[in-house]
Amino acid sequence: MISGRCLCSGVRFEVTGEIGPVVQCHCSMCRRANGTAFATNAPVHADAFRIVQGQELITEYESSPGRLRAFCSRCGSPLYSRMPDRPELRRVRLGTLDGDPGARPVAHIWIGAKAPWDTLPEDGLERFDEAPPQPYYTSPGPPR
């Protein structure tokens, strides 16, 4: 089990299952939602993701049709995203985790949309100009 929280600690959550492939997304929506060059995300099974405090502080925003981004309404921290047509899945923002999830990034995605001022490191990770193959988005590990 690994815990996570928003900046103000009003929202706290736990992940009790495996974290799927960690990706660094450079799309314009992730950049704007996080205020950074990229967002580091990983899928987890929805039943392995539990809000333990502050459910009433979570606000969701539909950033594009069928994709909801959840954030703390008090401090603005991005927490996860979800798709109503994929209720079994949450994409957790790894920057909100309190400890080491044990998983490491495997790819940079949407690098065709990266910020012009950003430079990609020579880190050996796979690179995709746009969306990667499905497992990168939708394959969390088995629930515990």
Automatic annotation (TrEMBL):
Coiled-coil region(s): none
Originating organism: Sorangium cellulosum
CENP-V/GFA domain: residues covered: 2-129
Pfam family, one: GFA
Biased composition, class Pro residues, residue ranges: 132-144
Family: Belongs to the Gfa family.
Documented EC number(s): 4.4.1.22
GO MF annotation: an example: S-(hydroxymethyl)glutathione synthase activity
Entry keywords, A to Z: Lyase, Metal-binding, Zinc
Region (Disordered): 121-144
Annotated InterPro entries: CENP-V/GFA (IPR006913), Mss4-like_sf (IPR011057)
Protein name from the UniProt record: Aldehyde-activating protein
